Recover the amino acids of this structure.
């Protein structure tokens, strides 16, 4: 009986700290210099960042060097229950500030369903083209919900890269 109370108190404290943003701040601080290897690792890094406020859509960007070591993680947009305003120009300014060679963009779906909308797909193409124009790679766009959706794992980032190369070949 005593043990159950301890675990209930510990679990309650954990959820309070998770929702307070404490873990998000720790993740951002401790991730600098860490190697990021794939969408699953990115999801585990990103998930706590969305825990403190779960009723609005937000976007984070992971800025990385050429070896996929994390330079910085920043919240780059915040919005409403179903959208957030994202401006490629502002993301590019931050990317240049960090001297990043690649980025992973991520946003949450407060509904919990990580599947991309048409707007998500259009935004991914728009950002990938904007970044390609300055020789920065968008490695992935990860949508965080109850689980996650990776544009890279689903072949979409490769399709965008091919479309960009086709565009360059006709100019």
């Amino acid at each position: 009986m005593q043990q159950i109370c301890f675990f209930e108190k510990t679990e309650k404290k954990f959820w309070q700290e998770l929702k307070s943003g404490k873990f998000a701040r720790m993740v951002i601080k401790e991730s600098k210099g860490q190697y990021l290897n794939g969408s699953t690792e990115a999801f585990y890094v990103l998930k706590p960042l969305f825990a403190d406020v779960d009723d609005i859509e937000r976007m984070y960007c992971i800025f990385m060097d050429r070896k996929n070591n994390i330079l910085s993680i920043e919240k780059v947009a915040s919005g409403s229950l179903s959208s957030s305003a994202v401006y490629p120009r502002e993301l590019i300014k931050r990317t240049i500030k960090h001297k990043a060679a690649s980025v992973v963009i991520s946003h949450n779906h407060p509904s919990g369903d990580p599947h991309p909308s048409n707007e998500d797909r259009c935004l991914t193409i728009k950002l990938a083209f904007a970044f390609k124009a300055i020789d920065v790679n968008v490695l992935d766009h990860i949508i965080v919900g109850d689980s996650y959706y990776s544009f890279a794992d689903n072949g979409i980032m490769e399709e965008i890269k091919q479309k960009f190369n086709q565009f360059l070949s006709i100019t």
Remarks:
- The mean pLDDT is 85.
- The helical segments are 2-20, 22-31, 39-46, 88-98, 118-132, 156-170.
